[in-house]
Design a protein that fits this description.
461 residues, mainly alpha, 2 domains
Length: 461
Amino acid sequence: MAESTMSKATKIKWIVTIVLTVAVYLIPTNDIYTKQISLFFTVTVFGLLLMAFEFFDPLVVSVVMPMGWVLFGVTNAAGAMSGWTNSIIYMCVGAYFMANALEETGLLRRVAVAILSKMGNGWTVLLFGIFFASLVLTIMTFGMAYIIMATLCVGMIKSLDLKLQSREAALIGFACLLGSCCTRSAVYTPANYGMTIAQAQLVDPTFMVSPLQAMMHNWPMILVCMISLFVVSKIWKVDISLKGSEYFKAELKDMGKMSVKEKKSSIFMVIFFALLIATPVLKVDPNLLFALAPWVLLLPGINVATEHSIRHLNWQSVFFIGACMAIGNVATQLGIGDIIAKVAMPIMTNLSTLGFFGMEFAMTFVLNFFMTPLAIWSLTTVPMCQIALEAGMSLYPVVYGLIVSSEAIFLPYEFIPYLVVYSFGMMSMSDFIKFNLVRCVIFLLGILFLLVPYWMIIGLL
């Protein structure tokens, strides 16, 4: 008899998945928690656990979960696929395409290497150089710099004769993580803001956040990321002398002069950023700008993008975003948002301002163990916005709070960008957990005692 190829760990994951799914299904129903809602949560939890434990590609889950709702009568096909009727899907396609095109030209790599070559040779200076290079690329790519920065950092680790998963390599990886993942809490990213804006508009159709507003309202989180890097690098000190900038100077020299494509890409980015900043004045939806403008890079005479830019789009993420959008839409149809709001409202409305955002952080932090941030936003944005309106609070800080709190993770699987950086092997699982547990504490303190007071000063609260 052939032996099973399933590992013990995989068997345990399947048992956990089945037990949790059955446990959700067995929750007693009543007039409020109806059979339809029970089936919705059963199918959704099963789908998200398949995603969390990486049993299948996200694209598979993105098809199975919505169709499961249809199969069990939770909603019809139109409701299950409602995520695809929102412009966020096409905004993300455009943004992913633009990031691919800019990376292929070499512009992103050149910018990162140029910044790092200007930094000094001290260890702390090197770490902050990686952070700032990652931050610049994150702004340029609207939150999609983590792959190229992780690639650069692995190359640097090897060139400096450091071992992967050594403490030095782990700190370099953490600097990359902070700059290219955690700073997304202060930078407009299409998936994050597209999802939350779309859900908030179900409560207030006039709600909108421009890329400039996102940065202006949340830039203190960049300081929180810098504090996290400083604290972690001091707690886990390393005794090393190196010449990191020499490596990047050599890299920059090998690149030679800017190519024609790089120059065209630079011009495009300047124009694109100018249009994004001007969207409130032009009264243009930023989603449409992301969805349409990047395809200019394919036009004759420009020819910056190629077929490769299209073929290598992150379709798995696009499909998963569509499925997560549908989670929120179907939950709203079933009245789940109203139920959550009614249960949470007596608690949330009686809290102080710091208590309110502390509770929002705690809720998101716990849900991150079981759901992706996209799923969390699709399920919680509507009820949180309803509570905010009831309490006479602006929707802006509530939506921002959900986005920022979702960055407080300490296990790689909780958020795809973190998982991608971790997968490059720069840090061990134990270092990843230790570093990010410290960061989560600093993030909570930063939200409560830096970001919330800042919102008060600028009139959001």
